[in-house]
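Same chain as my last thread, 481 residues:
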Amino acid sequence: MVLIDGARLRCADIVRIAREGDDVELDATALARARRAHDLAVEISAKRAVYGRTTGVGANRHVVIDPDAADEHGLRLLRSHASGVGRLLPADAVRALLAIRLNQLAAAGSGVHPRMLGALHTALSVGALPMVHSRGAIGTGDLTAMAEVALTLAGELPWAVGEVDPVAVSPGDALAFISSNAATLAQAVLTWHDLGVLLGASHVVTALSYLALGGSPEAFSHRVHVRRPFPGSLRCAAEIRALISPVTGSPAPGRRLQDPFGLRVFPQVQGPALDALDALESVLAIDVNAAAENPLIDIDEGTVDHHGHFSTPYLALSMDHLRAAVHHVAELSVARLGDLVEPELTGLPPFLASGPPGSSGIMILEYVAHDALAEMRHAAAQVTTGTAVISRGLEDHASFATQAVRSAAAVIDAYRTVLACELVGAVRALRMSTEELPPVPAVAIFHRLAAELPGVEADHPLGEEIRRAEALLDDLPASTA
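reply #2:
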């Protein structure tokens, strides 16, 4: 059971709600505060202009709405904005969206009617999912996606899965409900989780390549990394030491004075990606618990404030940073794969081939890995350096956080393939090794993986092995240190 109180929702909680179906409990105190915010919004709107409640939106901000037509105005706003296109968001992203929006509304800054919170809570409890399209936001509020959710709750759009009883849209509810980046945040949280799993798995894959290549432990020494103590680099080096060190004693010395960069600079390259992942989690933890609706209804001060919290450069720039950092990590994986097919580094046949002269072994894996790496390079390009001027020039900046998050999906899929190619190569090299493997944790993991991956020595199609390796990455230990 995950408590929704508008203040303490964690990224890990959202992942469990989205993918494991964890139940949610709406905090009674938070619901009471949301009710007070609604009452205050109604009270203030009767005395002064409040954007989106007594006026139009965007360039229509100065157009005063007839109070007697406020209900219909809200529905018109939702209908006009529920214009998303593109693919439908997957079920896990929609559940994450519902959880995040419920938690944001529980932060009691929107002034939305409490029954909207109840409807979201019910939908999560019974497993009902609205149909939400992916395209229609530029990092200034997921207006199309949230309008689709609101109209579904109101009974005007069909449910994708299940249903809940329709709820009325009160005057002022429309903008108050859709003034959110919950759809983008939902996808960002799932991206944070999936990239975290793969970055965790990369420690294990790198350790297997280290063993196959006879790497030097000096590059991962605590003595070295404490002299340049970036948190991610320290953590990465500790993870590798835990995988390559025996229970007692020190790791065996390496075969070379210095290893290729794929091994030697792994902590320096993996470290920034780990730090970027942590930085993204910090941004997400703030945003999913934020009362960021414009305008803000402040029940403690009894005020309404118009602001720009719909703008999401923190998220956009964090996502750009993370994608670029992960691309650097993937470059090292491809480099290590190249090392694994080099006899001078492994002492094994070229391309780890086993058969007549000229056999190809795992030669094709480099092609597959570089194909995936090229896709990552394209997806890692910054998308936040442009802007947009819309709504008759009033709205003249956009973070494109939605696009920054969307690009991460391609990074996840491609990075999974890159790591899988290296994993297939490392397991094959360790199988072929004539040296006794040391009694270290990475070797135990190798034996488990070797039992899951085919051990065919002759040249054969490797596609199935890559696919199996891709699936195995999710089960590798995320932390060993």
